[in-house]
Write the structure tokens for this entry.
Amino acid sequence: MNDARPIILKIGGSAITDKAEEAQPRTDIINRLAEEIKRADLDNLIVVHGGGSFGHPTAARYAIKEGYKEDPAQKQGFAETHHMMTVLNGLVMDAMILHELPAISIAPSSCFMTENGKVKIFDDTILQGYAKLVYTPIFYGDVVLDQKIGFTVLSGDQLVAYLALKYKATKIVIGTDTDGLFDSDPKTNPNAKPFKKLNLKELKELQPKLGKAQGTDVTGGMAGKIAELIPAIEAGTHVTITGATKGLSIYRALTDQSVLGTEIEKA
């Protein structure tokens, strides 16, 4: 990357799709988020978005995350899952270009390989070139080849943590469909208590209590997302989790303003 340490924005699939209905985008939210990213005007931003109801159902149907089982149907499922993610990414890119953002889509399947589900190879030659020209790279959760199990799912949360560690990100902003972390599911419990600030120790204690995602999620829901983030937090990266479905939350988080959500620091 360039000399500036990056800020990484993760846009959750739960925010930009309706996870209760397969392949149902929330185009109004996608468009508003692009507007907020444009307004933030950051030269060192990396964006990663999740799959929501586009990638997860197909990946689950063909058991892609578990690896290749010599089943021809799985090969088709791998191709279908990647295609569904490119469809969602296309909608995200439509909004970025509409708002005149110099954004470039980068398919993880073209530059990442894993080993037993963990990133083993990342060729960042192209990313480095785009960084020099100050483009905003747009990654997304994708299916990738795996050196041990044939192929698997490389989640957006894995990408965020890996890129944050590799490039020593100053902060990570996570946009979800809730205003941060709660002691129970705020969608079903109106009395759920929000956590405004957490340190690493408190986060680790909270992790087992975090609920499962609504709808199909092959990457472990919020508990899985937190597990991926912990190494980046241990390295000193500040994390903000806020609601991407509410206007200006992402803009405020990207520009270091107070935001409704959860702030997480190492200590």
Summary: The chain has one domain: 7-265. The chain has a mean pLDDT of 94.
